[in-house]
Structure formats: structure tokens, C-alpha cells
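Notebook, bench 3.
Goal today: get a predicted structure for L-aminoadipate-semialdehyde dehydrogenase-phosphopantetheinyl transferase from Irena cyanogastra so we can plan the truncation constructs. The sequence was checked against the plasmid map this morning, with no discrepancies at the termini. Length recorded as 173 residues. Pasting the sequence as submitted so the record is complete.
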Amino acid sequence: GSSSIPNFFHIMKRQFTETEWDVIKSMSNEWMQLDMFYRHWALKESFLKAVGVGIGFNLQRIEFNVSPLQLEIGKVYKETKMLLDGEKEEEWTFEETRLDDHHHVAVALGKRERFVQKDSDVHSMEPDQPQFTLLTFEDLVASGVPVSPEDSAYWDNFCSKPEGPVKQSSHSR
């Protein structure tokens, strides 16, 4: 929704450390910079979701040292390291992949004890478990079962409605 990539980066400035911005800005053009931005964002989101703390967490507390800089589509990488409050977090692993030219996936695997109750548990993936699978809409709904029987009259009524909201007259009460 921003007017330009630099304007968008200015708005998002507080969400990344200076080191992360240096890496993002080191990319050769704005679109590659945006791509690296989204990679960092996916990593931060994966950590927040893994520990269950939400977006209220100060994102500058976590810093990612991405490696390698370029990800091959379909290959899973585990080289990226995270610092929390400036200290390297050895107990966390981040699995990353590119689904295609526009989509990054990051999964955080580690211990949540510092953030949530001790009885919560995070299970890391075993090496023989399948990696990421790209699903189509049809794959997702294939096993779906309708909640109620189909009612063609309901659909006909829905289709007969105007495309947009009808403006109310200012004189009506």
C-alpha cells in the first residue's frame, strides 16, 4: 500500500536491526531488497509463532544472520542463525525454502521454555519426515464435506443481489 519501496522500508524501519537493514539494502535492486525484506519477515514471524508471543514482541530483539543469501527454489536450508538480545541462540534452527520466485517459507524449531510454560513442547522434524509440499486449492478442499445440503434457491437469491452496496437516500428514515 506504500507509494514506493523506500517509503515502505521507512515505515517498517523499527522492525529490523541495523545489521538486518544492511543486508536488505545490500541487494542490487529494489525488488531484490523487497525479496530479502520478506525473507527476514518470514523468519521473524516463524519465531514469534513458535514461541506464541505475537506481534507485540519487540522485533529488534531478534536478529537474523541469513545464510546463504540466495535460496534455491525447493531446497531446504538450515544455515540461518538468530541472535536474541544480541546473543546467539544455538538451540534454535530455522528451516527455510523458496516455494517459487515470490514466496519464502520459514519454520522455527527450538525450545519455548523461556517464553511459555514448561509443559508446552515443540517437536522438531525428524530427517525422514517429508519437507514442504505445495498444495493447490483443490488439494486443500478435496476431503471437505458440506455442512448442509446444497440449496439452489439460496444460490439463485445470492446471485440476484446487486454487485455493490446500495446507497441509502439521505431523505429516508
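The radius of gyration is 22 Å. The chain has a mean pLDDT of 84.
Flagging this for group meeting.
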